[in-house]
Structures are given as structure tokens and as C-alpha cells.
Amino acid sequence: EEARRLAALADNVVIKIPIFIEGLKAIKVLSEEGIPVNTTLIFSPNQALLAAKAGARYVSPFIGRLDDISHDGMELVEQIVVLLNNYGFDTEVIAASIRHPRHVLDAAMMGADIATIPFGVLKQLIRHPLTDIGMEKFLNDWKKVQGR
């Protein structure tokens, strides 16, 4: 009932449901009613496959948390993308638990549709030492032209 109430607030509301037995039941019911669901706490390709089969619009594999326990989070993203494509699911992959810029690049290269990126990582994405050096040179050249 809460999911239906929240979904009625706006057309772009997506209900977030963790992967577990009761969660799969809720995903099935809500998706059949046209309510989009993001299945979260995905740590295996099997979980993503079950969520997609139940009708999830999105699945969110947690990359950083897997890396934290010495598993390859990017391999999971790749496996999920392959599985979803193999079976023609419309489910999109949201790379979650992004910890650093390399996660963003790798997720994009693996075919993730979306990434939830912390602001600190977002700021790191735009930075590059050669850009900083180039900007400093441009500013110094501009000051010379201005006679400063």
C-alpha cells in the first residue's frame, strides 16, 4: 500500500525494494500495476535475473561493497548486463556503491545504464592533472596578454 501511495505522488517515482522472497512478490505485483521498481542490494547475477523476471525496471548491483570483501564488483555488472541482454529484458542496470572514478568508467564500459555517483567522486571525474597544468598555463598566458 505504501508503494502505491508513493507512486501516485508523481510519474517519475520509482519504488526501491531489496531482493528477498517477499520483495520479489511485491516487485511482481507492482510491476503488473505499472509501478516502476528498482531492486536493490543485488550481489549476484541470479538475484538480478530473478528481479528482472519479476518485472523490475531497474536492478542495483552494489559494486563497492563487493570490492570491500575481495569480490569483483565490475564482473557482476558485466554478468548482469549479459544476462539481461540474453533474455531481452527491459530492466536497466544501476551501478551502485560507486567508490571512485574508475568504478564509473568500468561500469560504463561494462554496459551499466546508470550509476549512482557520490558528489565527491563526481568532482574527481572532472579532474585531471594535465587539465590543471593546461588551465594554469592558459591563465598565465592571459595575464601576460593583459599586462599583469
Main attributes?
148 residues; alpha/beta; TIM Barrel; 5-stranded parallel β-sheet; 5 strands
What would you say this structure looks like, in words?
This protein is of the alpha/beta class and 148 residues long. The chain has one domain: Alpha-Beta Barrel (TIM Barrel). It contains 8 helices and 5 strands. It has a 5-stranded parallel beta sheet. Strand 4, helix 6 (101-110) and strand 5 (114-115) form a beta-alpha-beta unit. The model has no long low-confidence stretch (mean pLDDT 96).
| Low-confidence region ranges | none
The proportion of residues in beta strands is 5-15%
Total helical segments: 8
The CATH C-level name is Alpha Beta
The number of distinct structural domains comes to 1
Q: Can you tell me the overall shape? A: elongated
> Which structural class should the secondary elements be placed in?
alpha/beta
CATH architecture classification name:
Alpha-Beta Barrel
Mean pLDDT: 96
CATH fold node name: TIM Barrel
